[in-house]
Specification:
This protein is an alpha+beta fold. Helix content is 50%, strand content 20%. The protein is elongated, with a radius of gyration of 28 Å.
Length: 379
């Protein structure tokens, strides 16, 4: 049995690729360096939202004309084509997102092959990396410490342009629709179990009876006439996941290096004499720790998604699906561990300085006693 949801012409699959690109991007300067297609629009909520509910600063979105890419089509399989425009979004904390649009139509089950093709698509990823490298080169004067990391986070948003006024309540509760939507979101070739269907459909939110957003870890389905605000929130959540993963990997490497630096530190007299090369490494780790802490704050403060407003609830569901609170906790724990290590090294260095001063005082005291005797003997 099929569901009754029809995907009209004008619907798209938005394929997102998030990259860690730099320590910081001056968006005002970058906007002046790119074409007139660049915009600085914040989230436009469909409902009334607080004044603080927006990006600070608003990301820079650039539309770039590209060659359309053909996806799939091997053997008797159906082929799909991306549009001739790609959107690149730059964030001030150094991340960027490359978004492709693939026109879709028909029924949900018609998109199973597309979901399979898009899952970890190497061709799209390679092209997205080329687009990221090109935009970074174009805005190079506005970029501080450019470093396009190998880490990438991809996500697919199926946006169905359903006409307004259509009540989706019955569709959302229909067993056939739920099974088809779960299979699409998970990009699984086989039939999902009832438990898998319930899990995939566990994060559903609507603002009106004629729209619905279903969020899963690999993809999301956005149904409704107006969904730009939801797409912006989901894109940011994907970028935030990328940044969390990047920081977590970086902090793991820093903890390993801090352990090695501590093991390589000299003992005894050599440490008292200051022959401690590990201190240089610890100072460098301290600077990296500060960079990571600033990046963590920058990402978390880029969008004030608090309260019970609709988009805040969308973000909370996306964060739940992408396990952002767990990543936050892991990063905070590692930042705290690094801080304790640095405090320990700082305290130890202060103790060493005190010991050296005590030795110098004792030496001076002994010299002050010995000098009069040496003087008398000399006479």
């Amino acid at each position: 049995m099929r569901s009754d949801l029809t995907i009209p012409t004008g619907s798209h699959a938005h394929v997102l690729f998030a990259f860690e690109a730099a320590a910081h991007i001056n968006l005002d300067k970058a906007q002046a360096l790119v074409s007139a297609a660049a915009t600085r629009e914040s989230i436009r909520g469909r409902a009334r939202t607080p004044e603080y509910f927006e990006f600070r600063p608003a990301p820079l979105r650039v539309d770039i004309p590209v060659r359309s890419l053909t996806l799939g089509g091997k053997g008797e399989g159906r082929s799909w084509s991306t549009s001739d425009m790609v959107e690149v979004t730059l964030y001030d904390f150094g991340a960027l997102a490359v978004t492709y649009r693939v026109p879709i139509a028909g029924r949900l089950e018609d998109l199973y092959d597309l979901a399979d093709v898009l899952y970890e698509n190497a061709e799209l990823l390679a092209d997205a990396r080329r687009q990221a490298e090109a935009i970074l080169k174009q805005v190079a004067p506005a970029v501080r410490r450019s470093h396009l990391a190998s880490l990438v986070e991809d996500y697919v948003i199926y946006r169905v342009a359903s006409p307004p006024g259509v009540d989706l309540s019955a569709t959302l509760s229909d067993a056939a629709f739920r099974r088809e939507a779960a299979k699409l979101l998970r990009a699984e070739p086989g039939e999902p179990s009832p438990q898998e269907v319930e899990d995939a459909m566990g994060c559903v939110i609507s603002f009106t009876p004629s729209d619905a957003t279903i969020i899963d870890w690999n993809a999301a389905l956005v149904v409704g006439a107006d969904g730009d605000d939801v797409l912006a929130v989901l894109e940011f959540a994907n970028v935030e996941l990328l940044e969390m993963r990047y920081m977590d990997d970086r902090l793991d490497a820093m903890l390993d290096e801090a352990y090695d630096a501590e093991q390589d530190r000299p003992r005894g007299v050599r440490r008292l004499l200051g022959l401690d090369k590990g201190r240089t490494r610890m100072r460098r780790l301290s600077a990296m720790h500060l960079d990571s802490a600033l990046l963590f704050e920058g990402v978390n403060n880029a969008l004030k998604l608090v309260g019970d407003q609709f988009l805040a609830r969308v973000y909370r569901l996306a964060a739940l699906r992408l396990h952002l609170p767990d990543w936050d906790a892991s990063i905070l724990r590692k930042l705290s561990t690094l801080q304790r290590l640095q405090d320990q090294v700082s305290d130890e260095q202060a103790t060493i300085r005190m010991e050296i001063l005590e030795i110098l005082i004792i030496v001076l005291f002994v010299v002050s006693i010995v000098i009069p005797f040496v003087t008398v003997v000399g006479k």
